[in-house]
Write a structure and sequence with these properties.
Layout (H helix, E strand, L loop, with lengths): L1 E7 L4 H8 L8 E3 L6 E9 L4 H15 L4 E12 L4 E8 L3 H17 L12 E7 L5 H10 L4 E6 L1 E8 L6 E9 L1
Antiparallel strand pairs: 1-3, 1-8, 2-6, 4-5, 4-7, 5-6, 8-9
Helix pairs in contact: 2-3
Length: about 180
């Protein structure tokens, strides 16, 4: 089972579609479905998972973070690992970064206690817009990164979700296993 903990972004599907429009049809770039928009809070990976222990860890992380429901806005775009070598094009959080980071840090602590690998990179709350499979459209994507001025949200955040991801030829399929209220 391939699992992750997310904050789902259910509301601004049309705004994300509009933002992705300049990227549509570019060779070597695969857009993500706005209907699947989410912030990955902790990737847990493939394997056998103790779902009861994970549920307890997620609840403990929420309790430890002390975060009440809040709003986020998205106001920037970027690329991982960098604009010079693009693998992922993303939409970044503006307002709301602090509570997301607190939740992430608590999730990281609770899940590493269960034996999950610690993250090796800094947490950057984002929604994936596209994945670059080759550099054919690198110049166009770099221009998008320089010129895009996104204004998405506010989006109300009131829960974390434990999700299963199944990889398919058309892209990943997600299923919520459990939701956890803030």
């Amino acid at each position: 089972m391939r699992l992750f903990v997310s904050v789902d972004i259910d509301e601004p599907t049309e705004a994300i579609e509009r933002l992705q429009a300049p990227l549509s049809g570019l060779r070597g770039l695969r857009l993500t479905s706005p209907a699947n928009a989410h912030l990955t809070m902790k990737f847990l990976g493939d394997g056998d998972h103790d779902l009861d222990a994970l549920s307890d860890a997620i609840e403990a992380a929420i309790d430890g973070a002390g975060v009440e429901p809040f709003d986020v806005t998205f106001d920037r775009v970027g690329a991982f690992p960098s604009p010079e070598y693009i693998r992922v094009v993303w939409l970044g959080v503006g307002r709301g970064t602090e509570p997301l980071t607190e939740l992430h840090d608590r999730l990281e602590a609770e899940t590493t206690r269960l034996g999950y690998d610690a993250e090796t990179h800094e947490f950057t709350p984002h929604v994936t817009l596209a994945r670059m499979e080759d550099a054919a459209a690198k110049a166009e994507v770099q221009a998008f990164l320089r010129e895009a001025t996104p204004e998405v949200g506010p989006v109300h955040i009131d829960e974390l979700r434990l999700k299963e991801s199944t990889l398919a030829a058309e892209g990943p399929e997600y299923r919520t296993l459990e939701a956890f209220r803030l």
